[in-house]
Amino acid sequence: MNHRLYSLIETSLLASFISVTGFIKIPTFIMGSEFQMSAPIAVAICAVFGFKRYIIAGILSSITLFLMGAHTLIHVEIAMIFRIVVGISMALFGRHTGVILIAGPLGTLVARIVLAFTLQVPAIVLIIPAIPGMLLTAFMSVPLTKLLRKTDQQIGGKQYGKAL
What we know:
single chain, Arp2/3 complex 21 kDa subunit ARPC3, 2 strands, transmembrane helix, membrane
């Protein structure tokens, strides 16, 4: 399989992975808040595959979910702000464990501040319910990154010349 075709398939699968895990929502102890599994998955994808592949997969995910009616423009806004902050964090500071821990919660924080501006509500009202999810994102991002990195090394694009 040639490199370009493999990259196309891999990016499509990453977009699907982001989309599907976005539907996995775990309730937290704060009423009205939940942890969305796609956040640490997205951080791991950015850490393993780099910003370009991550942002393309994220855009494809948002377009797909929007066209299916599963997301509104506000959902897309939140997701894209999150992705940009995570990507810029890793582009500026590297893909080290500390950055992986902080990138997701920072992305959520900035996305909530932008959402507060969009909705014309106090940011603290949106940030406080997000804190448990931000902590879970930080906690889950590192092991998911390690798992995704190991999987990519074992079966990923480094084997273009081998039978898959």
